[in-house]
Amino acid sequence: MLQQSIRENVMESRETRGAYADPSVSAAQQRAPYAEALVHFAASSPMSLMVPGHGNDPAYGAQHLTELFGERVVELDAPLMLEGIDLGPDSPLVQAQQLAAEAWGPGAVGF
């Protein structure tokens, strides 16, 4: 459910920008590797022990974040520098940076 909701939000955002209406947009540019990795991470029901108040669950210490940002954001809350998301030469973070640089130019991209 969460993964489908995130995917729908990503698709809706792209459609609003017109990415799917432009035939010159490559298939790679229609991906969101970092968002996909976060959705996969959240689907594994991780236990968050690294940051106080970040429990990935409103019932376990993240109520204030849920009230501020919404439940979906809390579910996708992941610590920095995780293997399979942020780390590695071909990580989803690196892939997202490369796609952004290809789309808008390396000087316009900042993560």
Report on the structure:
The protein is mostly helical. Helices cover 47% and strands 0% of the residues. The protein is built from 5 helices and no strands. It has helices spanning 2-17, 33-43, 63-69, 71-75, 92-104. Helix 1 packs antiparallel against helix 2 and helix 2 packs antiparallel against helix 5 (92-104). The longest helix is centred in the first third of the chain and has 16 residues, at 2-17. The relative contact order is 0.14. Residues 14-20 have low confidence and may be disordered.
User: Helical amount among residues, as a percent range?
Assistant: 40-55%
* Poorly predicted ranges: 14-20
Q: How many β-strand runs?
A: 0
Give me the secondary-structure category. Answer: mainly alpha
Radius of gyration: 15 Å
**What overall geometry do the principal axes of the alpha carbons give?**
elongated
Distance between the terminal alpha carbons, to the nearest Å?
28 Å
State the helix count.
5
Q: Biggest sheet: strands, sense, closure?
A: none
The whole-number mean of residue pLDDT values reads 76
The helix/strand series, from N terminus to C terminus, equals HHHHH
Strand content: under 5%
